[in-house]
Amino acid sequence: MLAFLPCMKALTIAGSDSGGGAGIQADLKTFAALGIHGSSVITAITAQNSKEVTAVCNTPLPIIKAQIDAVLSDIGCDAIKIGMLSNAAIIATVASCLKDVSVPIVLDPVMVAASGAKLLEDSAIAALKKSLFPSATIVTPNVHEASVLVGYEIQNRDDIKKAAADILKLGCKSALMKGSHLNTKEVLDYFTDGKEEFSLTKKRIPKEGHGTGCTLSSAIAAYLAKGESLADAVKKAITYTQNALEHGYKAGSQNYVLNHFWQTNDTF
Known about the structure:
- 35% of the residues lie in helices and 22% in strands.
- By secondary structure, the chain is of the alpha/beta class.
- It is globular.
């Protein structure tokens, strides 16, 4: 039985995945698996499955604002995870609503789905960096996203460290660089806040996961909501996500869905 910690709450601001593998669905499953009450703000409705994204409908800006206001005015939260924000207007709305929030913010700069579909307009990248990076406790890009953010291609471990330092210059307090897309035998994740840094190397799991980035960022938020230090939250979240992928299963015909409840249920 999952034990929910009294008053430990996290908020996810992201898109909905009709296939249940990524986005809001992955975030809420992660929160629940880690014993945190999860609230949600849906920024877009996507039609997708294990193979592709077939349609995207952005949530009207007043509804995004109303969702955030409703949660923060009553339930509140101990940490926030931000995922898919598809255009500059949505980014500006979210940034405005969170300007007085003092809890940790985990920003996952979602740009492309696992299927390859674009989830962030090119014109919104500058807005994302200007409006939300300075508020972020940690930013969690994969190497493709990081390459877009810093303006050069990331090909190896030295590039990862250089890019992390450049991302810190955008105003965020720390960066976690996810190296799973590099063509290496093992996967390197690199964390830095400009003072403390560490690398974690893990085995490459032969499964193409759907929602791994969403799960990792929401797991960091969950551990921060529990009061973990940032470094410990990152390390525990990586371990949790790695195990969820290792125990992952196929709900559709292509990408694997993570088993968020791998610690209590492995019946898939």
